[in-house]
Amino acid sequence: MRTDLQTVILIAACLGSVLYIAEAQDKISSKDRAFLTKAAQANMAEVQTGKLAQEKSMNEEIKQFGQKMVEEHGKTLKELQALAKKKGETLPSSIDEPHQAQATALSRASGKEFDLMYVKDAGVADHKAAQQLFEDGTKSKDPQIKSFAKKILPDIQHHLQMAESMSKKLD
Predict the structure, then answer these.
(1) What one-character-per-residue DSSP string does 8-76 give?
(2) Domain boundaries, the chain
(3) Backbone angles phi, psi at 117, to 5 degrees
(4) Can you give the pLDDT at residue 27?
(5) pLDDT by residue (tens digit) across 9-67?
(6) What is the pLDDT of residues 113-132, one digit of tens each?
(7) Least enclosed by CB within 10 Å: which of 3, 20, 121, 139?
């Protein structure tokens, strides 16, 4: 009887240790948490401004770029949300103040002014910032976050190249 009790206690202790280690592995650093938050806000902003580009631009290339931003950043956002959920993290449900100010300014602009603002701000500047963010993400110690950042970085670089090309045409 005593041996059975000792065995049960030993098994319970081992299971508790395994669960503790598994839980500790799922916790993420504050740096990774900040990456997830900023990446979510950036992707939500690209979707929002991409919709504006589809509605407001008279330039077919910019409209198509906006559509691409809605589709691709929307897909990335879904992947990011799944990763965050797996990590037990809650992402923001709305964009941050700077992105909101940008969206508001874009919604008030029209014609050539809109096209210039959209391409230079949401296109070039935001993708440069996103490129830096995701380059930093590739240095994460968390293998899943690192892998996610490495997977998405080429898309961001491609979007930046597209935006820079459009910007040159607008100058």
Answers:
(1) HHHHHHHHHHHHHHHHHHH---HHHHHHHHHHHHHHHHHHHHHHHHHHH---HHHHHHHHHHHHHHHHH
(2) 29-170
(3) -60, -45
(4) 82
(5) 666 565 554 444 444 445 899 999 999 999 999 999 999 999 999 999 999 999 999 99
(6) 999 999 999 999 999 999 99
(7) 3
Dihedrals phi, psi of 87, to nearest 5 degrees: -90, 0
* Residue length of the chain: 171
The burial of 53, by beta-carbon neighbours within 10 Å (0-12 exposed, 13-18 middle, 19 or more buried), is given as: buried
> Residue 130 in contact with residue 47, Cβ under 8 Å?
no
Whole-model pTM: value is: 0.83
- Are 89 and 33 contacting, i.e. CB atoms less than 8 angstroms apart? yes
Inter-axis angle of helices 143-170 and 30-56, nearest 10 = 30
Sign of the C-alpha dihedral computed for residues 73, 157, 59 and 106 taken in this order: positive
Rounded to the nearest angstrom, the gap between the alpha carbon of residue 46 and the centroid of all alpha carbons in its chain is: 10
The answer to whether residues 167 and 122 touch, using CB atoms and an 8 Å cutoff, is no
Q: Which of 70, 49, 68 is nearest to 119 (CA)?
A: 49
Q: Could you give the count of Cα atoms lying within 13 Å of 45 in the half-sphere of its Cβ? A: 27
